[in-house]
């Protein structure tokens, strides 16, 4: 051991910024939050068939909202590229697009929730599907809302000169979060919506077979 | 920057009560954790003694069944979440930055937030005593028992919300220590040169950030069931799975066991080399054994559920995985013994507690392997044999290990030595009292005495052993009294410690005791695992402060306690909401605003003006 004067205290051991590493660690942990909710949903799938089930999920409408969310990730990439090159105009334009697309996604989700309640009477209290589906997607929607608030704050701060090319890392970290929330949605869209709708169809087919056999025409 | 959106000026003073409330210094936060954990240790201990008074005689009426339920619930919850975890956090905070050669943790204000969330959550849960009653649903809070269908009392709501808030604080601390250890090491302090205690802290921190989310979600689902009428645990009405809670809880709960024991293992792995005067035997294998224990710890949760009928294949797989954990644990024990082998052993108090740890933890580990075997577990489930087992692990293991840490590092924390004479009395009384308390519980368990019963009749023939156990518990209490006397006396007039009273090898011994608030005047460069043993150069005093004066440290901040208060009062608002909807909503809105305001204040907080000038002068 020796003491060398003039060592830069602010250099990190890995060279990675502390805040960026914190975001990666948080996202790793967040996987467990979503994993628990999605796991609970899958365990409870088809467990109690009273009341509305996953066949009420609309694949066409959710495909559109998924597409909008994915495009918001593209906008996030362009916003970060903008601020990293010092092009504040590009950064502000695309950050605003991210916020708008994110809000459109939230709008779709609110439409979905209210439609389910109005047409099928589905609330978190209705049955197991209502509890697991609405709490899980609601948790994801909350993540999107936090992301919008965060990016909106960054956009606002950039007009006050607090966000600039020199600390584009702030935007990069928010971007990591935003992309993660998108990726989680792709998992939910695949595992909950697509498999759910397919499963419901399969169940209907199976029921038809049983019915046909029961009356002797199968 | 000065025209920030903050309403509070950034504090500069570190004096007095405000200095402690606004502190972001890892050493002060460590002391806050330590003192809080010790106070709760006394609370949890009194709860245990009350249970032992009740059980000392058959057909006793000292407390009734309901009170007994509350006592074992709060004893378990307190000891796990308000004693062993924060005691571990106390050592993480005080020592990890010193041992890796850093000036503070990666996120000092987040560190303060973790502490305030812990203490507010703990206070909120205990506050239920004044509003309703103590929670009485067991420390594991099994649903559907805890749903409002079966437990109307709002004490369960306090339990859920208090635990949730403490969990958020713990998870934040987990992130902080992962980043600190990976990113804040001194030059030359490679991962494989780190002492074992920071290593185990790193592993525990990873366990925390991956194991707490399932608990957080499980508590959220239960909260939604109780407050908003969702169906997650509604078995009778909605057909929910009665085992869902058990799975989610133990997916958290088993890694939690390693969160409780690995810090003690880290302490012991650093105490043994110092008092054997030789390096830790098989350093690399001890490190990797810790990592393997943590990894396997995520795949054994269902051994808490062997009697629930999971099916032969699942049960067999979990039994196999559980037994497999015995291997890395055994690797550690053999390495500790080999460290002692051939060493010049000095029987100081820290070493006595470390040896107590090894022997008692061994016994707990062995009975653990016993009920990893499913047929044996089926016999022992919910008997006193299990109570004996986990007290050998958590008291014989964690508490003995943490006490070794107290005696080892008290000189570093205060600059004064603890009395060796009282220390040895403390050790032998605690060792004898511990075994007198928990060894007979094995026998009681095999004789069929169930856990959690509030009394038993005289013809069950458990009276003699139970009386013996209760006497043992009071011997432990006397030994703790000796510890208090030792700390109070030594803090005032103990022998001065100097920088390195035990001739230790690691970096924390290279600086004054107690350390200055900036820790290292000049950050050291590390060249080996034992920087203070390996190089002659270490005989020299640490260099004086550089010409430009003290290193700049982060300023104190009000925001951590403001944010923690906002979060806690949102939970308080939820509790009020049950009795008074509008008042509850009002409290939630106001505290939510305080919390959000705190976060924005935090993000845009400037450095204090005085120190801004100081920094400026350096450039």
Task: Describe the protein's architecture and organization.
The complex is a heterodimer of chains A (218) and B (619). Chain A is built from 5 helices and 1 strand. By secondary structure, chain A is an all-alpha fold. Chain A has a domain of 138 residues: Up-down Bundle (Four Helix Bundle (Hemerythrin (Met), subunit A)). In chain A, helix 2 runs antiparallel to helix 3. The radius of gyration of chain A is 23 Å and the shape is elongated. The termini of chain A are far apart. With 619 residues, chain B is mostly helical. Chain B has 19 helices and 1 strand. The interface between A and B is large, with 39 and 59 residues. Strand 1 of chain A pairs antiparallel with strand 1 of chain B, so a sheet runs across the interface.
- Characterize the main sheet of chain A: none
Q: Can you identify the CATH class of the domain at 59-196 in chain A?
A: Mainly Alpha
Poorly predicted tracts of residues of chain A: none
- Taking Cα atoms only, what radius of gyration of chain B do you get, to the nearest Å? 25 Å
Q: Fill in the CATH topology of the domain at 59-196 in chain A.
A: Four Helix Bundle (Hemerythrin (Met), subunit A)
Number of helices of chain A: 5
User: How is the main sheet of chain B built?
Assistant: none
Helix coverage percent of residues of chain A?
Answer: over 70%
Shape of chain A: elongated
Low-confidence stretches of chain B: 1-6, 610-619
Q: Any guess at the CATH architecture of the largest domain in chain B?
A: Up-down Bundle
- From the coordinates shown, what is the CATH architecture of the domain at 59-196 in chain A? Up-down Bundle
Q: Assess the beta-strand content of chain A as a share of residues.
A: under 5%
The H/E string of chain B reads: HHHHHHHHHHHHHHHEHHHH
Terminal CA distance of chain A: 83 Å
Tell me the total number of β-strands of chain B: 1
């Amino acid at each position: 051991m020796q003491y060398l004067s003039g060592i830069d205290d602010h250099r990190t051991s890995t060279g990675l910024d502390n805040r960026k590493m914190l975001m990666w660690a948080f996202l790793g942990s967040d996987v467990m939050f979503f994993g628990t909710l999605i796991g609970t949903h899958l365990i409870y799938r088809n467990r109690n068939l009273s009341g509305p089930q996953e066949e009420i999920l609309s694949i066409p409408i959710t495909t559109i909202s998924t597409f909008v969310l994915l495009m918001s990730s593209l906008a996030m990439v362009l916003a970060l590229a903008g601020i990293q090159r010092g092009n504040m105009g590009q950064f502000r334009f695309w950050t605003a697009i991210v916020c708008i697309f994110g809000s459109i996604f939230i709008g779709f989700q609110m439409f979905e929730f209210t439609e389910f309640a109005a047409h099928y009477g589905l609330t978190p209290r209705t049955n197991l599907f209502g509890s697991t589906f609405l709490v899980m997607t609601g948790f994801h929607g909350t993540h999107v809302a936090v992301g919008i608030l965060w990016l909106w704050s960054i956009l606002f701060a950039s007009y006050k000169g607090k966000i600039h090319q020199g600390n584009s890392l702030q935007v990069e970290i928010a971007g990591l979060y935003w992309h993660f929330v998108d990726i989680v949605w792709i998992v939910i869209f695949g595992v909950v919506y697509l498999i759910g709708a397919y499963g419901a169809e399969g169940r209907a087919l199976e029921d038809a077979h049983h019915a046909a056999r029961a009356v002797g025409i199968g | 920057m000065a025209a920030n959106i903050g309403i509070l000026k950034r504090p500069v003073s570190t004096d007095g009560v405000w200095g402690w409330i606004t502190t972001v210094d890892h050493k002060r936060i460590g002391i806050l954790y330590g003192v809080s954990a010790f106070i709760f240790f006394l609370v949890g201990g009194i709860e245990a003694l009350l249970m032992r008074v009740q059980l000392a005689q058959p057909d006793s009426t000292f407390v009734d069944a309901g009170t007994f339920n509350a006592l074992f619930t709060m004893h378990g919850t307190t000891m796990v979440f308000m004693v062993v975890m924060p005691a571990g956090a106390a050592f993480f905070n005080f020592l990890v930055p010193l041992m890796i050669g850093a000036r503070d943790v990666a996120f000092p204000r987040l560190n303060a937030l973790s502490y305030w969330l812990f203490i507010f959550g703990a206070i909120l849960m205990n506050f239920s005593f004044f509003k309703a009653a103590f929670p009485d649903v067991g420390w594991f809070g099994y649903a559907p028992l805890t749903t409002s269908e079966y437990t109307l009392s709002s004490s369960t709501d306090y339990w859920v919300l208090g635990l949730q808030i403490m969990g958020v604080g713990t998870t934040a601390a987990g992130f902080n220590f992962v980043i600190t250890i990976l990113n804040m090491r001194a030059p030359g302090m490679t991962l494989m040169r780190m002492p074992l205690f920071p290593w185990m802290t790193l592993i525990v921190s990873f366990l925390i950030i991956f194991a707490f989310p399932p608990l957080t979600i499980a508590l959220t689902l239960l909260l939604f069931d109780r407050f908003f009428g969702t169906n997650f645990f509604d078995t009778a009405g909605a057909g929910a799975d009665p085992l869902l809670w058990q799975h989610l809880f133990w997916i958290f709960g088993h890694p939690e066991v390693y969160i409780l024991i690995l810090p003690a293992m880290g302490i012991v792995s650093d105490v043994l080399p110092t008092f054997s005067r030789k390096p830790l035997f098989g350093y690399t294998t001890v490190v990797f054994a810790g990592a393997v224990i943590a990894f396997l710890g995520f795949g054994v949760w269902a051994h808490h559920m062997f009697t629930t009928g999971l099916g032969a294949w699942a049960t067999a797989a979990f039994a196999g995985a559980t037994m497999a954990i015995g291997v890395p644990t055994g690797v550690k024990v053999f390495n500790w013994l080999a460290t002692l082998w051939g060493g010049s052993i000095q029987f100081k108090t820290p070493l006595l507690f470390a040896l107590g740890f090894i022997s008692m933890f061994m016994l707990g580990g062995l009975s653990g392997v016993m009920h990893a075997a499913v047929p044996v577990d089926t016999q022992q489930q919910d008997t006193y044999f299990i109570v004996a087992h986990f007290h050998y692990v958590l008291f014989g293991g964690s508490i003995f290990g943490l006490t070794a840490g107290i005696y080892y590092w008290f000189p570093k924390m205060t600059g004064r030595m603890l009395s060796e004479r009282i220390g040895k009395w403390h050790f032998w009384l605690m060792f004898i009292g511990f075994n007198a308390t928990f060894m007979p519980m094995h026998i009681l368990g095999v004789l069929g005495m169930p856990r959690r019963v509030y009394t038993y009749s005289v013809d069950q023939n458990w009276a003699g052993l139970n009386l013996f156990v209760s006497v043992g518990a009071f011997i432990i209490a006397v030994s703790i009294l000796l510890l208090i006397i030792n700390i109070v006396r030594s803090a005032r007039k103990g022998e001065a410690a100097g920088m390195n009273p035990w001739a230790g090898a690691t970096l924390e011994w290279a600086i004054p005791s107690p350390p200055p608030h900036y820790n290292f005047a000049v950050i050291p460069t590390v060249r080996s695992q034992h920087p203070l043993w390996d190089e002659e150069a270490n005989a020299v005093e640490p260099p004086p402060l550089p010409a430009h004066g003290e290193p700049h440290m982060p300023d104190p901040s009000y925001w951590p306690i403001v944010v923690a208060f906002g979060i806690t009062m949102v939970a308080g608002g939820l509790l009020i909401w049950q009795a008074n909807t509008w008042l509850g909503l009002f409290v939630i809105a106001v505290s939510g605003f305080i919390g959000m305001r705190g976060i924005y204040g935090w993000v845009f907080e400037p450095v204090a003006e005085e120190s801004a000038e100081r920094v400026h002068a350096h450039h």
